[in-house]
């Protein structure tokens, strides 16, 4: 008998819901309009990350709308209209009515997941691998949790108006602070912290994690668990507070029950405060979105990396990889569903590889401060990958993961410590020539105070005037044998300059008679191959990582052209160079 | 005791804060009886009925419905009774047959929904949305839903309020059929004719108390005991009254002796004498009728106020 009541009530609620145009509007039409607006107008079509974000966003609209408006306001309306009163005389508890509301909300929502996924895939060519089961689990749990929150609203409000107000009061802030509608980092810190206590934030991060980072429901178990708890608490509380008639009033003490549903989120929020997992995850998601932007570089002179040149061509980048290399005519960016970068005849080449980087000076026991700034410095100067010299503190391992996952922006940290035979730039500095500190290249990224500090330090160091001559002789000898090493600028050692050291190294090589083309090859394809990444890095080739450098002038004539950087792209992300320089300068370096 | 009472209430009280809506009510409804609670709005009828239905808790008194305490064995009572509430609604977009099927699923027993809809003349409307039904159709549906579990006891709270007279008659016919099915019915109304026409017994309620109880005819007789003859003539009636009227007949003239209201135990005899008397005086009769005392009169007599505001 009981089960029959549940089944009958669920069946009729579903039917009634499907007959209700308002429900269809809020569940499908409104999210669809947003979806199309973002897909067509705001460029989500040129970036699979932005597309994922759009999918997440419209799903959030659906979940929150179904929960607060579908669940909360509907139930209040039925009570006001005297409909619930009719059910009160039947021998049933409120449970079938509430369960039916949950099930209906879920059943009506679910098709929208498929609708938006298919639209993204077929209309906008969204091609991220998808863990559908996990996505369904997380969004389903989300709908049920928010729906039960809606039911509690219905239980405690005394009028339709009140329920509208409360639903709006919860809907807007939750949507805004979840990160779904606008990025969370634009808000003041205290609001970002508050967001960690809101269920919508966890749902959004879970959805995004699955869509963008290939996470599973299990990876998001804290969020799933807290939403399940919220659903259970919501159901129990709304049964407890259920009112069949509008003239039954809520006892003020009963409103305390509301605290129950917030408890899981207070707990998860407190844990997040401590653990800061979400903060990291948000940075990763943002980076992932940037990496997945599609780019079409047009009208470029391309140095392929191994010595081959394309006089005029282009490159299509999708999801962090080089999808196509064009010779001659390049299609229109719109056709290629990508954002265009007009190279205007500039030179495109693989980003440089620095084969000898010191992250911590010998003898240091603690990791140095500001390593993240150091890493961001490399990509600022177009260094797309580095190899770390012996590293007793294990920093390479630690930061490789952070860079790969996108928590930190930096060059790819290639495995294996390879000690390069020499560095002209380092030898020059040991000899007391610190002209490198006065270069524009250094001044663009470092603060004047920091550079002056280095100069003062250098003045006090013992000078080794013979060092440069010995290193140069070694280079000439190797070049004579046709065995160029991979260049290692940052072995400039104590100076710790990143890009400028490598660029100075290349410049000195040219000065010592190595042809520019050989130098470019050594700093790209050769260095990548030596580090075991020759199959995906160091060349402008289809299927290779989109880690590229676009420079003014002709580096084939003068390698100093490598310092006149127009654009750096690392794993598909167009590096915001100005932003990185500002961050570094304001940190005092 | 032949059959146990379907409803038994004694000393029933209900307080809402300081306001006492029901102030000690005692009555019994026998099985198979149609019992009416008659009283103006706010007399405490609906509160009484809702306590019996298990929807409200009483403040004091003893109540038994079908042998159960509706406050303690609420679901057991609800499962065996049928209720048509005053001012309820169904969702706009529910179809008639869907409502019947839905409610049938809530009960242990249920009747064949198709037969029920036919019986209540809703068969043609079975695919119509609730919002498209007329007032009478909605009320018939309410009645159908009250009968969907083949209840032993049916509560009808103001079943015809707000309906036009024609539709009211239809509903009365349907309720009369419940008598044929030997169902016990508790009906509340503030329509006198309804109580007179349908009920075996009536309790008149005012301000939370029962002021009179009995069969409608019995109540009428007890209160007034007399029928009235009213006559209207074209010219003023003679000063001299008929011989036979000297005793046992009360007369009131009005409208310049062109209206006469006479009351007596045997109205038929008065009429004969009246007609002879007027004929002898050569006065033309414009209108003449006999009126039995109504529950309205009973109510007026007992409470000093009118049922209809």
Number of domains of chain A: 2
- Taking Cα atoms only, what radius of gyration of chain B do you get, to the nearest Å? 24 Å
Using the alpha-carbon principal axes, give the shape of chain B: elongated
Tally of DSSP helical segments of chain A: 21
Main sheet of chain B, how many strands, which sense, barrel? 6 strands, mixed
Low-pLDDT residue intervals, each spanning 5 or more residues of chain B: none
The value of Rg of chain A in angstroms is 30 Å
Binned strand content of chain A: 5-15%
Helix content of chain A: 55-70%
Oligomer: heterodimer
Task: Draw up the topology in text.
The complex is a heterodimer of chains A (589) and B (309).
Chain A: H1 2-18, H2 21-41, H3 48-80, H4 83-88, H5 95-124, H6 132-156, H7 160-177, H8 189-195, H9 199-213, H10 221-241, H11 258-275, H12 277-291, E1 295-303, E2 309-318, E3 321-327, E4 339-342, E5 347-350, E6 352-357, H13 371-380, E7 383-388, H14 395-405, E8 412-414, H15 424-430, H16 440-445, H17 448-460, H18 466-480, H19 499-511, H20 516-530, E9 548-551, E10 565-570, E11 573-574, H21 577-586
Parallel strand pairs in A: 1-4, 1-5, 6-7, 7-8
Antiparallel strand pairs in A: 1-2, 2-3, 5-9, 9-10, 10-11
Chain B: E1 5-16, E2 19-30, E3 34-38, H1 45-52, E4 60-65, H2 74-80, E5 81-84, H3 96-104, H4 113-119, H5 135-147, E6 153-157, H6 165-180, E7 184-189, H7 192-198, E8 201-206, E9 209-214, H8 216-223, E10 227-233, E11 250-254, E12 259-264, H9 267-280, E13 285-291, H10 295-303
Structure description:
The complex is a heterodimer of chains A (589) and B (309). Chain A is of the alpha/beta class and 589 residues long. Chain A folds into 2 domains: 2-291, no CATH class; 348-586, Alpha-Beta Barrel (TIM Barrel). Chain A is built from 21 helices and 11 strands. In chain A, strands 1, 2, 3, 4, 5, 9, 10 and 11 form an 8-stranded mixed beta sheet that branches. Chain A has a 3-stranded parallel beta sheet with strand order 6-7-8. In chain A, helix 3 (48-80) packs antiparallel against helix 5 (95-124) and helix 3 (48-80) crosses helix 12 (277-291). The longest helix of chain A is centred in the first third of the chain and has 33 residues, at 48-80. The model of chain A has no long low-confidence stretch (mean pLDDT 86). With 309 residues, chain B is an alpha/beta fold. Chain B has 2 domains: 5-221, P-loop containing nucleotide triphosphate hydrolases (Rossmann fold, 3-Layer(aba) Sandwich); 226-292, Alpha-Beta Plaits. In chain B, 32% of the residues lie in helices and 28% in strands. Chain B has 10 helices and 13 strands. Chain B has helices at 45-52, 74-80, 96-104, 113-119, 135-147, 165-180, 192-198, 216-223, 267-280, 295-303, and strands spanning 5-16, 19-30, 34-38, 60-65, 81-84, 153-157, 184-189, 201-206, 209-214, 227-233, 250-254, 259-264, 285-291. Chain B has a 6-stranded mixed beta sheet with strand order 5-6-7-3-8-9, sandwiched between helices. In chain B, helix 8 (216-223) packs across helix 10 (295-303). The radius of gyration of chain B is 24 Å and the shape is elongated. The two termini of chain B are 41 Å apart. The mean pLDDT of chain B is 87. The A-B interface holds A 1, 4-5, 7-9, 12, 15-16, 19-20, 78, 81-83, 85-92 and B 53, 55, 74-76, 78-79, 83, 85, 87-91, 93-94, 98, 101-103, 105-108, 145.
């Amino acid at each position: 008998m009981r089960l029959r009541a549940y089944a009958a009530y669920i069946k009729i609620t579903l039917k009634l819901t499907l007959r209700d145009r308002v429900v269809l509007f809020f569940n499908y039409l409104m999210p669809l309009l947003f979806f199309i607006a973002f897909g067509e107008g705001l460029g989500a079509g040129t970036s699979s990350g932005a597309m994922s974000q759009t999918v997440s966003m419209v799903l959030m609209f659906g979940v929150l709308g179904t929960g607060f408006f579908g669940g909360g306001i509907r139930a209040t309306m039925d009570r006001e209209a005297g409909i619930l009163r009719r059910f009160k005389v039947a021998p049933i508890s409120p449970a079938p009515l509430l369960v039916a509301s949950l099930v209906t909300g879920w059943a009506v929502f679910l098709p929208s997941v498929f609708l938006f996924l298919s639209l993204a895939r077929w209309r906008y060519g969204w091609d991220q691998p998808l863990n559908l089961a996990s996505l369904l689990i997380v969004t389903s749990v989300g709908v049920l949790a928010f729906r039960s929150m809606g039911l509690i609203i219905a239980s405690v409000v005394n009028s339709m108006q009140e329920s509208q107000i409360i639903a709006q009061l919860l809907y807007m802030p939750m949507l805004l602070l979840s990160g779904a509608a606008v990025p969370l980092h634009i808000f003041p810190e205290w609001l970002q912290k508050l967001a960690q206590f809101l269920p919508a934030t966890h749902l959004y991060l879970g959805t995004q994690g699955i869509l963008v980072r290939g996470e599973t429901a299990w990876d998001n178990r804290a969020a799933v668990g807290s939403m399940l708890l919220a659903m259970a608490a919501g159901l129990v509380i709304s049964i407890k507070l259920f009112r069949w008639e509008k003239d039954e009033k809520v006892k003020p003490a009963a409103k305390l029950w509301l605290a129950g549903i917030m408890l899981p989120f207070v707990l998860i929020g407190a844990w997040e405060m401590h653990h800061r997992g979400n903060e990291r995850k948000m940075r990763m998601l943002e980076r992932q979105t940037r990496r997945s932007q599609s780019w079409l570089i047009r009208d470029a002179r391309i140095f392929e990396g191994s010595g081959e040149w394309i006089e005029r061509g282009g490159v299509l980048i999708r999801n962090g990889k080089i999808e196509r290399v064009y010779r001659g005519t390049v299609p229109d960016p719109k056709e290629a569903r990508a954002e265009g970068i007009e190279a205007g005849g500039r030179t495109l080449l693989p980003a440089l590889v620095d084969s000898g980087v010191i992250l911590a000076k010998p003898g240091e026991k603690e990791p140095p401060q500001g390593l993240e700034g150091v890493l961001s410095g490399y990509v600022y100067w177009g260094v797309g990958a580095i190899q770390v010299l012996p590293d007793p503190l294990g920093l390479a391992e630690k930061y490789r993961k952070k860079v790969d996952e996108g928590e930190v922006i930096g060059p790819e940290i290639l495995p294996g410590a390879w000690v390069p035979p020499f560095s002209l730039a380092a030898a020059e500095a040991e000899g007391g020539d610190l002209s490198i500190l006065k270069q524009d290249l250094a001044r663009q990224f470092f603060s004047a105070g920091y550079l002056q500090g280095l100069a003062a330090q250098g003045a006090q160091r013992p000078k080794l005037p013979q060092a440069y001559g010995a290193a140069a002789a070694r280079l000439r000898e190797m070049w004579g044998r046709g065995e160029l090493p991979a260049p290692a600028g940052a072995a400039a050692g104590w100076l710790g300059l990143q890009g400028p050291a490598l660029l100075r190294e290349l410049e000195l090589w040219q000065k010592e008679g190595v042809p520019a083309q050989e130098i470019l090859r050594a700093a790209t394809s050769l260095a990548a191959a030596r580090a075991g990444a020759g199959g995906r890095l160091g060349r402008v080739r289809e299927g290779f990582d989109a880690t590229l450098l676009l420079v003014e002038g002709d580096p084939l004539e003068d390698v100093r052209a490598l310092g006149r950087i127009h654009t750096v792209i690392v794993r598909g992300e167009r590096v915001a160079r100005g932003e990185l320089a500002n961050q570094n300068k304001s940190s005092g370096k | 005791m032949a059959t146990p009472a379907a409803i038994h209430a004694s000393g029933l009280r209900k307080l809402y804060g300081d306001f006492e809506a029901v102030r000690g009510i005692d009555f019994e409804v026998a099985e198979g009886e149609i019992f009416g609670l008659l009283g103006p709005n706010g007399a405490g009828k609906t509160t009484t009925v809702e306590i019996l239905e298990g929807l409200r808790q009483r403040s004091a008194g003893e109540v038994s419905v079908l042998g159960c305490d509706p406050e303690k064995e609420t679901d057991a009572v609800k499962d065996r009774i049928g209720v048509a509430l005053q001012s309820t609604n169904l969702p706009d977009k529910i179809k008639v047959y869907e409502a019947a099927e839905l409610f049938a699923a809530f009960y242990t027993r249920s009747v064949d929904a198709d037969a029920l809809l036919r019986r209540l003349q809703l068969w043609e409307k079975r695919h119509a949305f609730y919002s498209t039904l007329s007032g009478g159709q909605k009320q018939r549906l309410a009645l159908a839903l009250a009968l969907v579990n083949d209840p032993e006891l049916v509560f009808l709270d103001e079943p015809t309020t707000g309906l036009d007279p024609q539709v009211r008659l239809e509903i009365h016919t349907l309720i009369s059929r419940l008598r044929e099915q030997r169902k016990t019915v508790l009906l509340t109304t503030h329509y006198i004719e309804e109580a007179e026409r349908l009920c075996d017994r009536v309790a008149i309620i005012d301000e939370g108390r029962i002021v009179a109880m009995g069969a409608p005819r019995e109540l009428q007789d007890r209160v007034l005991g007399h029928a009235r003859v009213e006559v209207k003539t074209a010219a003023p009636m003679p000063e001299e009254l008929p011989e036979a009227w000297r005793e046992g007949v009360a007369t009131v003239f009005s409208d310049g002796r062109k209206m006469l209201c006479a009351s007596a135990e045997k109205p038929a005899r008065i009429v004969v004498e009246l007609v002879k008397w007027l004929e002898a005086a050569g006065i033309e009769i414009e209108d003449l009728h006999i009126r039995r005392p109504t529950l309205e009169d009973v109510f007026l007599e007992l409470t000093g106020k009118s049922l209809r505001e």
